[in-house]
Write a structure and sequence with these properties.
Elements (H helix, E strand, L loop, with lengths): L3 E4 L5 E4 L2 E2 L5 H13 L3 E2 H8 L5 H20 L10 E4 L2 E4 L5 E3 H13 L7 H17 L14 H31 L3 H14 L4 H13 L3 H19 L5 H12 L29 H9 L1 E2 L1 E9 L12 H11 L7 E4 L6 E4 L5 E4 L8
Parallel strand pairs: 1-7
Antiparallel strand pairs: 1-2, 2-3, 4-6, 5-6, 8-9, 9-12, 10-11
Helix pairs in contact: 1-3, 2-3, 4-5, 4-6, 5-6, 6-7, 7-8, 8-9, 8-10, 9-10
Length: 371
């Protein structure tokens, strides 16, 4: 039987096999979502009164019949010969066929949420990998809140129902992201923990627990600036959305980070490609149409910058008399260097150099490179 896929965490998307369905009215989509999520069979009278409350009984039943006809025609376009309809119609009762022919992202979230709720504090080995895989896969399905941005202005019943489910699924998604990021953190996979918390905060930007976890993770990497930036973002979002200050626990954590030395120095993320050798620039240094044109013309970023191999002194370093442009260029394109730039007072101009690069792609004809 053909598959009916409903993705409801975010803007609703309905697919029949591989074809995305479009609906002529919002009521048709709303009715399909309601029947699929609720399951079971529902009286026609109840549905017509709930979705067409503004119409009298006769016109409401007519509108319901027209909507069911639209849904049936949409499904028939992908049905194989002799396939059963996804719609279940038994006299005065209506529903959507459940089972293998229906896939809901909500079902996967429910299963992952139950897994997280059973207490997965310290799974090890293969069990840990399986739990992480399930939580990770489920978290990737979350595009936003339940039926994000979808309402029916003339059906208070449906909007109330949607609001209740939005809160219900919000709590379950919270549990999934909480368990996922915690497992990564406990396993020492800090970068993955940070990435999962960042997606958690995109889903729920008012979640202070998420901000606190991100602050702790950043600080554990020696990134005090990143931790305090997360706190600043928390304050801004809460002030703009709710006109409140962060909780005392969040404020205390920020104070601790501000006045405590990190347990480890900041570890800059290395952007060196795996195949690159020390002392050699990456092959893609001058990728991009703008820089390719500059390379052909022999200049980079300004007339004072020339692309050369600078091996003067014990360390060939990037340098330039135009410090602001050179600094920006090195930050953007010097991907083989994972250290920050340091100001050098050498020469008549203020230059910038890297303390570890063994290859210097940038030089200027107007000043000497720092030693």
């Amino acid at each position: 039987m053909s598959q009916l896929h409903l993705s409801l965490l975010g803007t609703p998307v309905v697919k029949h096999d591989e074809r995305t369905l479009t609906f002529s009215t919002r009521k048709a989509l709303a009715l399909l979502v309601y029947l699929a999520v609720e399951g079971g069979l529902h009286p026609r009278k109840t549905l017509s009164e709930a979705f067409w409350a503004e119409l009298d009984a006769e016109r409401g039943r007519t509108a319901l019949r027209a909507t069911l006809l639209e849904l049936r025609r949409l499904f028939e376009r992908s049905h194989g010969p002799g396939e059963r309809d996804h719609l279940r119609i038994e006299r005065d009762l209506l529903g959507i066929a459940q089972g293998r022919s229906l896939t809901l992202d909500l079902c996967l979230v429910e299963a992952a949420s139950k897994l997280a709720g059973r207490g997965i504090a310290a799974p090890v080995g293969q069990e840990r990998e399986e739990v992480l895989a399930q939580l990770e896969q489920t978290s990737r399905l979350v595009r936003g809140p339940f039926l994000a941005g979808f309402t029916l202005r003339d059906s208070q019943f449906f909007d109330d129902w949607s609001s209740q489910h939005r809160e219900h699924w919000h709590l379950r998604v919270y549990r999934v992201f909480d368990a996922l990021s915690m497992l990564y953190e406990q396993g020492g996979e800090v970068e993955r923990a940070i990435e999962s918390v960042s997606r958690w905060l995109r889903f729920d930007p008012l979640n202070e627990e998420g901000y606190r976890r991100l602050m702790r993770l950043r600080f554990s990497q020696g990134d005090r600036v990143g931790a305090l930036r997360a706190y600043s973002r928390c304050r801004t979002v809460l002030a703009e959305a709710l006109q409140v200050e962060p909780e005392p626990e969040t404020v205390a954590l920020a104070k601790h980070i501000r006045h405590t030395a990190p347990l480890r120095p900041a570890q800059p993320r290395s952007l060196l490609p795996p195949h690159a050798l020390p002392g050699q620039p990456p092959a893609n240094l001058l990728d991009g149409p703008v820089l390719r044109r500059m390379r052909r013309s022999g200049t980079i970023a300004c007339s004072k910058l020339q692309l050369v191999s600078s091996r003067d002194g014990p360390r060939g370093v990037p340098w330039c008399s135009c410090s602001m442009i050179c600094n920006g260029l090195i930050q953007r394109r010097s991907t083989w260097c994972s250290t920050s730039l340091a100001a050098s007072p050498n020469g008549p101009h203020r230059s910038y150099c890297c303390s570890t690069c063994a290859w210097g792609p940038i030089a200027s004809p107007t000043c000497s490179p720092p030693g």
